[in-house]
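Hi all, long-time lurker, first post. I run a small reading group and we've been trying to get comfortable going from sequence to structure in the token notation. Rather than ask abstract questions, I figured I'd post a concrete chain and ask someone more experienced to write out its structure so we can walk through it together at our next meeting. Sequence below, copied exactly:
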Amino acid sequence: MIKIFIGTSDTEDKWIEQIYLYSLYMNTDAELDIRFLRPKMFKDWNKNGWGTPFTCFRYAVPELCNFEGRAIYTDVDQLNLRDISVLYNMDLEDHAFAMAWDGLHDNGMEWAQTPKAKGWFCDSVMVIDCEKAQEFIAPISEIKNCEKNYKHQFIRDIGNPHRENVSGIIKELNPRWNSFDGRDTSWYGDEILPVAGTPEANDVIPNFDLEEIYHIHFTSMSTQPWHPIYSPWGKGTYMRDDIAAILWDYARKVKTISNPEEF
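-- Answer (accepted) --
Happy to help. Here is the structure in token form:
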């Protein structure tokens, strides 16, 4: 049984929820135990400073699993193209987590204008050893009362922005399992970092060919076709026609999923 936890909103992401579920079931024969993490399930949590309605629910996963076994966490704005059991069964090599490197991650003012201004591991797709993760994630009782976004505390505690300090904590995940709109954001280099996030930097970020992508993450919120109302960005057109074609094909096929086994 593969445990998958998906961070989502209460109502704004229903369209992509259906399509994402469809993609997961269509691409595996494995038995899936999928649980959505919605704000209404965590009513007493302090959500100040969160970028989405579900930002910090991912850190509850190990405790929700009683610190036993393995689980996958993903955000809702994704589409699966390869058997998810391959990801679930990867060799963690005794690490607590597997995450892809994101060369676009902004490490804040403290590291601005330094070689570590950009770059950190992306927790929007995680494979988690729930027992080992207990050492690095605070208990739910602390996370839910965190005055600011617990994400910042968590990544600082495990070594951000020092990539070299995560040995034994984070196993670096193949970026094809968390491809940002079809791109490979695992690129890294001092010659690129000072301009990361600018249009010029985006131009040099490599794109995966469609057949190379295992799992797509619709990270550009302005081009997400379902346009959740919590997004602060204006509406834009999705940039990759080949990925959009798959999304719309699945959208045409998908049903309201009351019985996932029908897929």
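A couple of things your group might point at:
The chain has one domain: 2-262.
Confidence is low (pLDDT under 50) at residues 190-198, 257-263.
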